[in-house]
Amino acid sequence: MNKAITLALTGASGAPYALRLLECLVQADYRVYLLASSAARVVLKTEQQQEWPSSPKEISAYLCRQYGAKEGQIVACGKEEWFSPVASGSAAPRQMVVCPCSMGTVSAIANGTSDNLLERAADVVIKERGQLILVPRESPFSAIHLENMLKLARLGVTIMPAAPGFYHEPKSIADLVDFMVARILDHLGIEHALTRRWGYAKG
Ligand SMILES: Cc1cc2nc3c(=O)[nH]c(=O)nc-3n(C[C@H](O)[C@H](O)[C@H](O)COP(=O)(O)O)c2cc1C
Fold first, then answer.
1. Cα–Cα distances in Å, from 194 out to 132, 173, 184?
2. How many CB atoms lie within 10 A of CB 77?
3. C-alpha separations of 47 from 19, 56, 106 in Å
4. Which residue, 90, 95, 96, 102, shows the most beta carbons closer than 10 Å to its own?
5. Which of 7, 38, 42, 43 has the most ligand 1 atoms within 8 A of CB, as the residue to mutate?
């Protein structure tokens, strides 16, 4: 476990993407610093009928059990845990994914608000010129959303909307989820066999 990444969940629809991504990161032997907004927990309950415990320590233990992770492999952090490694450029992982990413969090990151640990962690990755991937979901996008995303894209942030393709002939929701997660893993440089690649023969 010598690779680390920050995974943040916010209150946009798309909790299944986040959980599948977490599973894949654990399998790839990453230590995952996990951040979840209050709205993310509401979405998790609504979409996945999942209720996480209240304290970060309990969340870490619960998710480690759930995903067969090693002890300490999933590190949940509280929203005002300012001494977490992700809060400082001197210790934060250089890769971070916000999945799913609400328009509220897109705005906060685009404006450098840093009002909670999740926003601060994204701010740190941008200032350190690391790799920040946002998986936004909203429909339609307003000009505010688009301007915020354009600003971030120009700073080098990868905007990867939760918009799975259908050309791989998905048979299930799990196939659609894997399509998105596969693209995220591709960008992170993590090998996987979740989907068939473009141009490869079927079967
Ligand atoms: C079930 C549910 C689904 C939501 N879906 C979206 C969405 O797809 N996109 C979005 O931007 N906000 C969505 N919201 C609203 C956000 O959760 C809300 O704006 C929240 O303040 C975002 O806070 P956060 O960015 O701190 O997570 C949804 C809320 C709920 C409860």
1. 22, 13, 11
2. 24
3. 11, 21, 21
4. 96
5. 43
